[in-house]
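To close the chapter, one final illustration. This time we ask the reader to focus less on the individual chains and more on the assembly as a whole: which components sit near each other, and how the overall shape emerges from the parts.
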Amino acid sequence: MFLEAKNLSKHFGGLHAVKEVDFSVEKGKINAIIGPNGAGKSTFFNVITGLHRPSSGQVIFKGDDISKLPPNKIALLGIARTFQTTNLFEQATVFENVVVGHRLRTKSNLFDAIFRTKRTKQEEEKCKEKALEVLHFVGLAHAAERMVGSISQEEKKRIAFALALATDPEIVFLDEPTAGVNPDETEELAQLMQKMVQKGITVCLIEHKMQMIMKLADKIMVLNYGEKIAEGTPDEINNNEEVIKAYLGGSASA
Amino acid sequence: MPTLLSKKYALIAIILVAILIPLLSTNEYYLHILTLSFIWIIAVYGLNLLAGFTGYLSLAHAGFFGIGAYALGLLTVKGGMSFWPAFFLAPVITTVIGFFIGLVALRTKEHFFAIYTLCVGYIIYLVIDKWEGLTGGVRGLIGIPGPTNIGPIELTSANARYYFVLTVLLLVVFLIYRIVNSLVGRSFIAIRNDEQLAQSIGISTLKNKLMSFVLSTFFAGLAGALYASFIRFIGPDISNINITFDLLIFMIVGGIGTLSGPVIGTLLIVVLSQQLQFLQDHRMLIFGPLLTSIIIFSPRGLAGMYLTWYYKRKAKKKAQIQTDNASIGGDS
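The assembled structure is written out below.
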């Protein structure tokens, strides 16, 4: 099993944000998590990527329990993520902002920095090459030298992708990657996700845009009030009684 | 490339001016003020590394400045140590104390961190002020030795001490430049922009924040040690919270998170307060509005104002070139 959540729960005081969820991410596929607002999707992501410790249950990545590791150690293992909002350095270029993404694969320390050792020069070069490579991959090579303060929402989403990809991940968790962008741009971002999968990176995303998800995802899990109510292919989810109920509210008999 | 060259020439010119000042002016008072400003600049660089580049505003900075100064003072006056070993030990002592305080302080964030360090700074002040047996309390420490000659290099005249402090300052600027422009510096900046994001791209935020904090206390301690050896007398007031706010004003006016900001802000404010001395405390009527308008209109200070203008111009030029190329392409 590639990445697996076993009986995962997270509560904040009396609030059960995630309740005994079992979920496995399929390698090399696009996995989606959907659910109404407040269903615990983001919390589920935060628990898996180490931002929150699970209240109970485990997260297993390639056979190892990672549920107690801090986010930076989890990133080191090859699990990257994006956030709904990405705060970047507005007064620097897109390129400058992405260079740090490969920092985790380098070893230069303060000593290297002060004496500008050979190692630090090589590693800086490596980080810059990586930044160019991922900017190219996400289709932002032309904007590399532009100030982050002057670029569009959709381009910021792409930078977030680029930063995540610069960490050399095996799997990326994307938290609402297309929130706040128009339908055409959504389509382009969806293509970008497919491109990631083609490159061998597993994708797991949270989304609200149903049409897009139904087209894009190989596998969908539905959360409601912190509990898993359905899991399966888009077709299965489309015809699931419980899911329709959760989304439309009340009984679905009408 | 030409901009890089002109930057280099500007830097060399500024250093040359700094070197020539004592030769051109015989006014010892101004030289004294300038030397003192250089010492403040070193402290501001420490504050800027932490607050400007890492995003953690420490209000205990004067406390660490005081620790550096008292470390040098106590080691020489009470410990009988000669100047140079004490001068190297003082920043190290400050750094060690900074490390342990940082371990606790960095468990807090944002304004809680500022409030916590404000308290730490005040506690350091109280310890220095009240522990009469060790520090001499309000009477302070008198008779701290200045830098002694190194072989043939004479360090006792006012000019020589000016050059000594200038050398240390240049070294500090160089160090900060190297740190900020390295992968370590990039990690600091990533933490400042978004700590959660920084951690999720694999940066150990705890380690980097602590490193930045400890470095900032090192520069504060170094500045303190220089101050003690330059003024030769220290009292508890040098670790007072007022000093922290002075340093903060220097940093904000000059440009928080910029490399040249500490120099610009400190020199400007020190010169202004000298020129406006006839106004006495009414000087604040000028500084207050100045500070407020800078925070409103240019949050990154004077240096930030210049940088914004510079990048705008560069972007415009680039756009111009692109449209030119496009029109050429259209003609052919």
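The CA atoms of residues 248 and 254 of chain A lie 11 Å apart. The longest strand of chain A covers residues 15-25. With these observations in hand, you are ready for the problems at the end of the chapter.
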